[in-house]
């Protein structure tokens, strides 16, 4: 007798914290839902379980309003009737950083563990595409499965086995990461609401289940059929037990079970008896028509992406390394502050939040959260850098001259770094506590002579610098043991090139009156300018054409890239989710538009030329477009155009080349007064290749320039993190960005990299008309990019490392003249590793051990060499949850093989 098919009915709700309603309105609905859930679980023992959408933040949100329900909630979690975790929030995978994805998993596990249970489910129900490294991340976290709704096209049981990397014969499949890690994938082929609102009426139930069972069997590889009983903000089905009894009566050949995700996955694993399709790498709906991929959420409300990049970099690339460094010097690591800062930041990471595809009220609140998280991170940075600066021996400067004002430069990236830094120094202070009248304090500070001083490094070498006198300033200290201490000071701003600061290390300088000439006089270095249109250093030559476009020559390869930095403008009659250019419209560009060009900086360490385009673009979409929105015309079918009226769009671009720079930095500012349009910067590569690479989550993903045959959308925009790269034999071009996460490699014969700088739209989109006037992004904007030519191998040439350095701000701290246990040029760790990219340095809350993480950018194995300047440490291999694994070394030096595309974490335990 054949085995019955089993209908696994899993009760859940997909909880977008904010979307088409502001957060608090969704929050109030959540309180009602959770109250109903607890009541249902109490009164109905047949209502077996409920899955809380994979995100532990729901518990926080509920208990914030209902703290008296905590004991009852904990009871049902411990009994296994409410399943929680493994994430803190359901993030957008591509618009949040590698480390943010891990903090989400780590904090979700920490929060769930407090209740005694964690649902080990790789849950991505509505992520707008899935990252290629998810299988490796999940496997390292002890999760052997992934449940997701987007990115793969099911072909159905009766079709032949799929021959595509992005199709699956069944709703069950094997998902393989670039390193070879595999998890069992469960595709919501009929979406995560295919078992919602089950009827209790027999007639309705018969019709319902005949349809639903057939739909599930069309794709299922086993008799274990999945029915997700819930949807977006779906209330609890309180009569589900009755509905299941009705179904059992009507379909005796089917076993209806009020199931849970864990039991369902175990049942599928037991029942698998056929070969499953293997789907590899990123799941971005490659084999679709391209109209519903939601990829253009990467360019909706770009200001949010910029704030997020700044917040993530400040936490993971500045605050965590500095706090770790300070911890090695004896300062307590502020785990509680980091958890608070990360949670506050991650509340902006759900797909409807960071994607910019919600109503305006949602995104206004996000700005506040970004600020709050950043303020916490800045506090940690300030506290940590002072501890480290005070540990740096600056006593040498007292012998070099008078009135020394030392400062410490911190390189918190994973690579040695040279670059231009700016620091504000107090030349002198007078504290209010000293009893001086205010007018005398002001007079004395303004009379202070700040001329005739030199900037020197710890070896006594003079360093070229420029000074801006900021004049009289008010300030205050906040001591740990007394009331705030206000003061008046004379402040200056110094700008100079810090050279060869070690990775994760420090370099000391001082601004002083020299007692004798510097060991290496600050001779006026040659200008980097040749006239007002050419900049040149040892590596690069930059020529500026009359229309403001750049010609950049890589002097190491002799390759020249032309027409870089032309701006393109098109209409956009789409929405926050998807871009749609008006039919038949020709793009406007600044090609041939004469620009105003002038030199704004000419120093020994950097040259900057400003390019101003006085441009005009159409003011908005037309009345046809407005009518189509009201009529809910699906955006690919819209016929609207842009109006004939023009508004000014003045773009002010500063092009900078530093003396030691291996890239050309661009900063563009503009005041957007147009609506319904898109602005991009174009970088033709003229490199012949069918593929390109883009920085993604722990991966430099390789993507095709040409989309699949099914792709109908004229646009083929993609996600990026830090950069996109087009490379060929002997030459390549990397374009790095700060928070500009949408690009396209154009099919224009030149393999042009187009980076989106702004997209202005007027509605949310999706399932109705939700006007979003603030998504037009009117007003002032500033964007930053870096052009990095290289020899054709972005990893080996160091171009990718330069793009990663570009993401991280310098940190500088004024300090005093004092002794200390560490010298200028010190770094606690030194590493080398071929194609490895450094990712993070932090302290594990569970163990107190220092954790260092890298990932292999390439498909060949490599070797990680690590040397500790501290000694006395045991080194072990960890996983992404920072759990201790096998011992690697008990000495100061480590040599560890790293597999292709492997994410490797090392724990450093003090003996």
Automatic annotation (TrEMBL):
SMART domains in the cross-refs: Alpha-mann_mid
Residues passing through the membrane, by range: none
Domain Glycoside hydrolase family 38 central: 297-370
Keywords, in A-Z order: Glycosidase, Hydrolase, Metal-binding
One Pfam family hit: Glyco_hydro_38C
Domain of life, per lineage: Bacteria
Family statement: Belongs to the glycosyl hydrolase 38 family.
Protein name (database record): Alpha-mannosidase
Organism: Paenibacillus ehimensis
The organism's taxonomic lineage, starting at the top: Bacteria, Bacillati, Bacillota, Bacilli, Bacillales
């Amino acid at each position: 007798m054949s085995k019955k098919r089993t209908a696994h009915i899993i009760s859940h709700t997909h909880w977008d914290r904010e979307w088409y309603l502001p957060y608090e309105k969704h929050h109030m609905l959540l309180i009602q839902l959770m109250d109903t859930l607890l009541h249902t679980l109490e009164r109905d023992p047949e209502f077996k379980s409920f899955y809380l959408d994979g995100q532990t933040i729901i518990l926080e949100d509920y208990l914030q309003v209902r703290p008296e329900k905590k004991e009852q909630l904990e009871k049902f979690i411990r009994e296994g009737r409410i399943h929680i975790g493994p994430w803190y929030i359901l993030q957008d995978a591509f618009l949040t950083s590698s480390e943010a994805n891990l903090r989400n998993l780590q904090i979700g596990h920490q929060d769930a563990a407090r209740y005694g249970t964690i649902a080990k489910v790789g849950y991505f129900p509505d992520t707008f595409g899935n990252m290629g490294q998810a299988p490796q991340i999940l496997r390292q976290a002890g999760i052997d499965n992934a449940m997701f709704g987007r990115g793969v096209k099911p072909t159905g049981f009766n079709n032949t086995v799929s021959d595509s990397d992005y199709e699956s014969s069944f709703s069950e499949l094997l998902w393989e990461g670039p390193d070879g890690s595999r998890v069992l994938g469960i595709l919501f082929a009929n979406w995560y609401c295919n078992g919602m609102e089950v009827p209790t009426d027999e007639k309705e139930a018969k019709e319902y289940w005949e349809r639903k069972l057939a739909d599930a069997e069309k794709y299922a590889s086993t008799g274990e059929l999945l029915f997700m009983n819930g949807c977006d903000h779906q209330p609890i089905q309180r009569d589900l037990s009755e509905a299941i009894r009705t179904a059992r009566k009507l379909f005796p050949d089917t076993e209806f079970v009020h199931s849970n995700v864990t039991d369902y996955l175990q049942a599928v694993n037991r029942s698998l008896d056929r070969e499953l399709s293997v789907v590899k790498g990123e799941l971005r709906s490659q084999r679709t028509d391209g109209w519903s991929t939601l990829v253009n959420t990467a360019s909706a409300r770009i200001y949010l992406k910029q704030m997020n990049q700044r917040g993530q970099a400040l936490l993971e690339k500045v605050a965590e390394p500095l706090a770790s460094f300070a911890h090695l010097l004896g300062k307590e690591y502020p785990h509680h502050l980091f958890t608070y800062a990360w949670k506050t930041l991650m509340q902006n990471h759900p797909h409807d939040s960071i994607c910019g595809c919600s109503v305006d009220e949602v995104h206004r609140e996000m700005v506040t959260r970004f600020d709050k998280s950043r303020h916490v991170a800045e506090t940690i940075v300030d506290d940590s850098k002072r501890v480290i600066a005070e540990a740096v021996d600056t006593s040498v400067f007292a012998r070099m001259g008078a009135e020394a004002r030392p400062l410490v430069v911190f390189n918190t990236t994973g690579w040695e770094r040279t670059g231009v830094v700016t620091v504000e120094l107090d030349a002198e202070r007078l504290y209010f506590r000293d009893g001086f009248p205010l007018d005398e304090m002001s007079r004395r500070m303004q009379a202070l002579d700040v001329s005739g001083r030199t900037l020197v490094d710890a070896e006594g070498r003079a360093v070229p610098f420029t000074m801006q006198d900021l004049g009289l300033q008010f300030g205050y200290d906040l001591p740990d043991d007394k009331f705030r201490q206000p003061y008046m000071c004379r402040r200056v701003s110094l700008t100079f090139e810090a050279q060869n600061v070690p990775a994760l290390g420090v370099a000391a300088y001082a601004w002083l009156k020299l007692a004798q000439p510097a060991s290496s006089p600050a001779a006026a270095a040659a200008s980097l300018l040749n006239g007002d249109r050419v900049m040149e250093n040892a590596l690069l030559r930059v020529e500026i054409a009359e229309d403001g476009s750049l010609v950049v020559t890589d002097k190491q390869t002799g390759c020249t890239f032309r027409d870089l930095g032309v701006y393109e403008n098109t209409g956009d009659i789409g929405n926050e989710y998807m871009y749609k250019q008006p039919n038949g419209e020709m793009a406007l560009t600044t090609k041939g538009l004469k620009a105003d060009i002038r030199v704004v900086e000419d120093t020994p360490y950097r040259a900057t030329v400003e390019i101003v385009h006085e441009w005009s673009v159409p003011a908005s979409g037309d009345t046809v477009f407005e009518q189509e929105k009201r009529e809910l015309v699906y955006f690919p079918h819209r016929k609207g155009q842009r109006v004939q009226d023009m508004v000014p769009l003045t773009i002010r671009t500063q092009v900078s080349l530093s003396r030691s720079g291996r890239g050309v930095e661009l900063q563009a500012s503009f005041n957007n007064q147009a609506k319904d349009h898109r602005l991009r910067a174009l970088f033709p590569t003229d490199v012949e290749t069918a593929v390109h690479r883009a920085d993604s989550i722990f991966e430099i993903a390789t993507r095709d320039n040409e989309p699949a045959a099914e792709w109908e959308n004229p646009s083929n925009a993609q996600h990026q993190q830090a950069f996109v790269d087009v490379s060929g034999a002997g030459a390549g071009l990397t374009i790095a960005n700060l928070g500009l996460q949408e690009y396209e490699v154009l099919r224009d014969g030149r393999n042009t990299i187009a980076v989106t700088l702004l997209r202005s739209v007027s509605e949310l989109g999706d399932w109705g008309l939700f006007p979003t006037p603030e998504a037009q992004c009117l007003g002032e904007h500033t964007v930053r990019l870096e052009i990095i030519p290289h020899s054709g191998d972005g990893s080996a040439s160091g171009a990718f490392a330069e793009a990663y350095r570009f993401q991280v701000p310098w940190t500088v701290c004024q300090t005093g003249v004092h002794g200390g246990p560490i010298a200028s040029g010190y770094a606690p760790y030194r590493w080398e590793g071929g194609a490895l990219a450094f990712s993070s340095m932090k302290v594990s809350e569970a163990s107190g051990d220092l954790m260092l993480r890298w990932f292999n950018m390439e498909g060949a194995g490599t070797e990680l060499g690590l040397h500790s300047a501290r000694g006395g440490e045991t080194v072990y291999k960890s996983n992404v949850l920072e759990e201790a694994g096998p011992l690697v070394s008990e000495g100061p030096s480590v040599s560890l093989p790293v597999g292709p595309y492997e994410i490797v974490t090392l724990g450093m335990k003090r003996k």
